[in-house]
Design a protein that fits this description.
It contains 13 helices and eleven strands. It has helices spanning about 10-20, 35-40, 50-55, 65-80, 95-105, 120-125, 135-145, 160-190, 195-200, 210-215, 225-235, 240-250, 255-265, and strands at about 1-5, 25-30, 45, 60, 85-90, 110-115, 115-120, 130-135, 150-160, 270, 275. Strand 5 (about 85-90), helix 5 (about 95-105) and strand 6 form a beta-alpha-beta unit.
């Protein structure tokens, strides 16, 4: 099977590398010409445009960012690809956008699934991503062997859009955990207990969460986009999600450097307040 990758940045490049290593005929495309040149130097076949890529593959893994980028890529590929080709959106987008793009693709004789991924750049490099798929059974199973080249598992959640819904649910919990983890360890730090040591203790307790386990690798890059998707879905569904709303606001103030200072620095800042450990005289531990 011939595989095309759209987007060969931090995620897409190693994903394409795993597919190539598994023996697939891989062609890549990116709007960034520097990335294309680097991929060519690494031995990849490259395409000059989306229309060119559409003629060189049967399954297309799209590792872009925004819904509008997914729309543009799907439109170009579905116009030019062979009938029964499969477009796979690995970006984190709205489930509602996926339904729109399935209709567009299927109307042109091209299959479509959504397969957002979790475990980030480290998972991409290690080939240990998790694909959360939405689509028809036949389409997901046809794409599965390619997806497994860079994944530890491929989970078929439901129809098109269900993969993105699962990713939104995962992201909501992740960012809730980021806020709650920070406040929990801030409490420990304020009383003079090393925050990293408390983190190690909590990882052995019922309070364990995967975000806490991998927390010092969280880059805090996409929290606003992720929470926008969640809040839009809540609005569409007519749901009140007060914790999600609070997290949407609070996670905006957190950055990777804040976590690093909390875990490894002598003092830190939170919500505009500078926090340092209390002395024993103030009530802290000696």
């Amino acid at each position: 099977m011939k595989v095309g990758f759209v987007g060969i940045g931090e995620m897409g490049f190693p994903m394409a590398g795993h597919a190539k290593k598994a023996g697939y005929d891989v062609t890549v495309y990116d709007i960034d010409k520097t990335r294309v040149a680097s991929a060519k130097d690494a031995g990849f076949e490259t395409a000059s445009s989306l229309a060119d890529l559409a003629k060189k593959a049967e399954i297309f893994i799209c590792v872009v960012n925004t819904d509008d980028q997914s729309r543009q890529v799907t439109d170009e590929l579905s116009k030019n690809a062979a009938k029964d080709s499969i477009i796979v959106i690995s970006a984190t987008n709205s489930p509602l956008t996926m339904r729109e793009l399935k209709k567009l693709s299927n109307g042109r004789g091209v299959r479509f699934i959504d397969s957002p991924i979790v475990f980030g750049a480290s998972g991409a490099k290690a080939g240990k991503l998790l694909c959360l798929c939405g689509g028809d059974d036949e389409d997901v199973e046809r794409a599965r062997p390619v997806l497994m080249t860079y994944s530890k598992d491929v989970l078929h959640v439901g129809p098109v859009g269900a993969g993105q819904l699962a990713k939104a649910c995962n992201n909501l919990l992740h960012w809730v955990h980021c806020v709650s983890n920070y406040e929990t360890l801030l409490l420990a730090k304020r009383f003079g207990i090393d925050a990293q040591r408390m983190r190690e203790v909590l990882l052995k307790c019922p309070a364990y969460n995967g975000t806490l386990d991998r927390w010092d690798t969280t880059k805090f890059t996409w929290q606003e986009k992720d929470m926008d998707v969640t809040m839009d879905l809540a609005q569409t569904a007519g749901l009140m999600l007060p914790m999600a709303g609070l997290t949407d606001q609070m996670v905006k103030v957190l950055k990777a450097k804040d976590v690093a200072e909390l875990l490894y620095g002598p003092e830190c800042d939170y919500m505009g307040v500078h926090v340092k450990p209390m002395t024993p005289e103030e009530g802290g531990f000696d």
